[in-house]
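Record DUF1684 domain-containing protein, 246 aa.
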Amino acid sequence: MSTTVSQPAPDRASIDPAEEWDAWRAGRHRALTSPTGNLALVETRWAPAGEVPDVAHARAGLPDTVTVTTLRRTDRVTGEDEHGLRFWDADAPAIRHFDRVDAFPYDPAWVLEASYTPVAGARRIAFEHIRDNGGSRDLVVPGDITLTVDGRAYTLSAFDDDGTLLLVFGDPTNGDVTYGAGRFLFVRRTDDAGRVVLDFNQAFVPPCGFSDQYNCPMPPRQNRFHLPVEAGEKLPVFRDGFDAQH
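=>
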């Protein structure tokens, strides 16, 4: 019988930020190339209104490399639930040709503290989505993030992503240097409920940058920075002239 000894969590002050960032980068690569990572998503199939798809039936006859999962969304017009299936292939061409995601060098200057003010009630803000042809979907934004960057004050809207604040932001690097539709960043809470940390070194290419089967939210006007955010991920790189699915 083996015994696992629990170790106390390290003090954040004792962690080397650059080493932590290297570990984050390695974890991103593993996640992207996993059997149900962003690169593996090859099909999203929505059932007709009112129907719930049969996973076992959909899985029958498919290669062992394929995983089928369920998903649900709310119809933007009727407000009714829609059910669908996602098909993930561990042997997808995008995985086989994937090399890396280019990134800016780690820069401690882009680790920013900000004020966080919770908002009472379930405030919802419209986010345009990349594949909704100009339409928008209301997402819960539980508070305001305020900070000053390069002398300009911003009030940012991060929505609730399964209990974590997810910031969708844009900046002048989008399109030429970084992903054109903007980037994502998970907001780190602190022991002080009124303070959060935005480590832009961990800004990442959204899922729709790896597969056209995703429908990602785009940055609202208030989340667009006027200066280049030269930190975090840039663009995916593929081998052999492979054209990324986005």
